[in-house]
Amino acid sequence: MTIDEYILTHIDEEGALLSTLNRDANVNLLRPRMLSGHLQGRILKMFCRILRPRRVLEIGTYTGYATLCMAEGMEEDSLIHTLEINDEMEDFIQKYLSVSPHKDKVRLHIGDAMEIIPQLDETFDLVFIDADKRLYSEYYDMIFPKVRPGGLILADNTLWDGKVLEKPHTSDKQTIGILAFNEKIKKDERIEKVILPLRDGLTMIWKK
Questions:
Q1: Could you tell me which Pfam families the record lists for this protein (predicted)?
Q2: What is the pLDDT along the chain (208 residues), one digit of tens a residue?
Q3: Which of 12, 15, 28, 168 sits CB 3.0–4.6 Å from 175 for a disulfide?
Q4: Domain positions in the chain
C-alpha cells in the first residue's frame, strides 16, 4: 500500500455520485487527470465546512467534481458561481449536477471567465481558480476586488508537475503563466499565502 492509498482509506469516502462521475471521466474524457479527485475534493469540502462561505466563485468547472464537493460542505442558502469556457462539457456537468442533492447551491455559467466575472454582482468568501494557467494572473487581478477582507483564494496546479523548477521553453505559455502568477503572489503585500504540496500544488491566499 502506498501513502496515497493509505490516506484515501482513512478519510471520508467520496460517495456514490462522485465515484461514478470520477469513473465516467476516466473512461470518456481526454484529460481525466484534470479532475480534482477524492483527496482534494474532501479538502475543498472541509474548507467550506470551516469557512462557511455564503458566496463561492469557481473558475474552471471541468466535470463539476470540485463544484459538488464544495457544495456538499456549504450551508443551504449559500451559492457557488462556477464558470466553464468549454461548452462541450455542459452535458457532462449537468448529468451529475441535476441529480445532486446540492444542485440548488450551484449556478453554472458557460463562457469566458474574463467576460462573466465583471457581470457578477457578488462579494465572495471563497474563490477556487483552476482554469487556463496562462491567465492565472489576470483572473487574480479581476477577482481580488470582489473577495471580502478575510476571504480565501485557492489556486490549483501552482507546482505544475515540478516544471516551476525549470526554465520554461518560450512556447510553454502555461508554465510561464504559472511562474508569473507565483511571483505575483509572492510579492503581494495585501495577502498572506502558503503553497500546499498537494497533488500538483494548491496555493492558499488569505486577503488581509
A1: Methyltransf_3
A2: 999 999 999 999 999 999 999 999 999 998 888 889 999 999 999 999 999 999 999 999 999 999 999 999 999 999 999 999 999 999 999 999 999 999 999 999 999 999 999 999 999 999 999 999 999 999 999 999 999 999 999 999 999 988 899 899 999 999 999 999 999 999 999 999 999 998 899 999 999 9
A3: 168
A4: 3-207
